[in-house]
What does this fold into?
Amino acid sequence: MTDTPRRIVFCDFDGTITAEETFVAMLREFTPEVAHRLLPQIYELKVTLRDGVRQMLESIPSSRYPEVLEFAKSKAIRPGLVELLDFLEEKQVPFVVISGGLKGMVEAVLGDLQTRVRGIHAVDVDTTGTYFQPHSDVEGETELVAKVEVVKQYGVEDWVAIGDSVTDLNMAMAAPLVFARTRLCQYLEERGKVYEPFETFFDVRDRLSQLW
It folds into this structure.
């Protein structure tokens, strides 16, 4: 990457930027039977994200994609995001979104805030066929979007991860500094990984202000 910054903040989308789990809620809405079967297995780490998410997405009819985007637009953003972006811009630290969900949903929720984000990495979906055909440029062994591989593309050693669930586990384990909430806290505690707890992005901004 050109213009490599000294540090970067990498942030999950679903349940992190959004105040509730938007992608998971979408799966439960648009493919309830498959989601009901696979989501518990994903959370228990019995089925990989790559296989589970792919199966769920491939069961959604392409004709419903506009409904999926409308579903996303109604979801609220976690408080403090704009203020965190203000702080990061002041410090000249880029903010990058890495999501294991659909890129179209991320863009629908962020709206005008997209202009303040250095990059959005998520699952693309082809809707020309009968059902969703998911595609990712950075597919890993266990993830449809291999978040650590995305981080490596940016070539920084000093980086921050923000996340909330199983899709963020690999990224959080690799991060020099991680902000975690809900299910991710449990995964990290089980693995002895130190993390900073947060509820809103005001918490993240205030802690980074202390650390930097």
